[in-house]
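TA notes, week 10

Several of you asked for a full example with nothing omitted. So below is the full record: structure tokens for the whole chain, then the designed sequence directly under it. When grading your own attempts, check the secondary structure regions first.
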């Protein structure tokens, strides 16, 4: 048992001496537990609904008040249907309601008024939740106040329901979960390959004691960092093409937007991940540290970026966190391009954010490499 005890003791000493890894081992699980404990929620409160009120009567105001109080919606009044559809495209609103101009006239004649409900179907779970909340439009609490009875008659005549809702599901009419999840799965696959490969690229040279030999060559530090990443960029690009092609052939993944924009998005996303991986690699002393840090970044990216759980469902203090995750912008753009068919103007902010991530992390990796290399 003495040799075994010696090996165990030696390994414990080796772990304790790697203070960074020790901090990650015990600190990261607690941090992830806190983040995910607050973030992983499906119920969304104050779901944004764009409302075009063409009637402007006491009845339409009653409908809006019911949506706020009973439906739990955050009502955003708009001036035109074009504004409403734009908000549905950008994600500023998840539903759109059009109140017709003849609402008051029809209700006073005890006729049925038809309201149009537009639903963003790009996130099926959220769409189903939104349609369930919109059920208050035909609920008893609202419709009971929209009938008109003749006080001189003992019993009112048979009457049609005062409100009828024509529902139109946009972007994903069949509410297919596959169309929603596949773009995110592609992002996760590419992130896993790119981030882990890039994160061990520089630190591997340090572990193999070849860094000094490379520093003796005429290659600059910037060229060294970029040169280490180019092979992984090619591998990731091929991976992206294979995976997205398989998604289209096997699962009929739609491509409603311009293919050129999807290519540009893939390039920017891969470059941002490579830069992040290089930064992790320049910070790490060993390959296990680099892999652990890459996984630490990967888990929040999957769960906090809106891949499964809507960002709107997170507590307000936690909602800024996804803004610091590259995958958040990739998801926003890829779903807009594949499902909604939006143009460059709507996804430009996502492209700019991914480009900024790539630039910042590349500069950080080079500066860090100059300091420690």
């Amino acid at each position: 048992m003495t040799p075994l005890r010696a090996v165990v003791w030696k390994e414990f000493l080796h772990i304790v001496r790697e203070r960074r890894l020790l901090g990650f081992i015990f600190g990261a699980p607690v941090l992830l537990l806190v983040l995910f404990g607050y973030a992983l929620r499906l119920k969304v409160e104050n779901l944004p609904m764009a409302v075009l009120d063409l009637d402007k009567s006491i009845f339409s105001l009653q409908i809006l008040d019911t949506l706020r109080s009973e439906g739990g919606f955050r009502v955003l009044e708009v001036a035109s249907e074009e504004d409403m559809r734009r908000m549905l495209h950008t994600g500023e609103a998840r539903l759109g309601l059009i109140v017709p101009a003849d609402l008051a006239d029809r209700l006073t004649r005890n006729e049925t008024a038809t309201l149009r409900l537009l639903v963003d179907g790009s996130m099926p779970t959220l769409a189903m939740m939104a349609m369930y909340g919109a059920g208050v439009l035909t609920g008893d609490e609202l419709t009971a106040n929209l009938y008109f009875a003749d006080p001189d008659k003992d019993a009112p005549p048979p009457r049609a329901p005062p409100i009828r809702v024509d529902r139109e599901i946009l972007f994903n009419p069949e509410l297919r979960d596959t169309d929603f999840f596949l773009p995110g799965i592609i992002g996760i696959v590419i992130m896993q390959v790119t981030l882990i490969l890039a994160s061990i690229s520089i630190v591997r040279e340090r572990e193999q004691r070849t860094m000094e030999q490379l520093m003796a060559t005429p290659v600059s530090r910037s060229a060294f960092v970029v040169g280490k990443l180019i092979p992984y960029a090619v591998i990731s690009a091929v991976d992206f093409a294979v995976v997205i092609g398989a998604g289209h052939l096997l699962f009929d993944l739609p491509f409603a937007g311009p293919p050129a924009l999807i290519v540009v998005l893939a390039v920017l996303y891969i470059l941002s991940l490579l830069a992040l991986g290089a930064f992790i690699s320049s910070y790490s002393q060993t390959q296990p540290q680099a892999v652990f840090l890459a996984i630490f970044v990967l888990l929040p990216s999957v769960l906090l970026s809106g891949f499964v759980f809507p960002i709107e469902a997170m507590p307000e203090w936690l909602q800024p966190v996804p803004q610091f995750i590259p995958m958040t912008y990739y998801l926003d753009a890829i779903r807009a391009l594949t499902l909604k068919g939006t143009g460059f103007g709507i996804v430009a902010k996502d492209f700019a954010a991914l480009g900024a991530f790539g630039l910042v992390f590349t500069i950080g990796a080079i500066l860090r490499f100059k300091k420690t290399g």
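Residues 204 and 210 are 9 Å apart (CA to CA). Use that as a sanity check on your answer.
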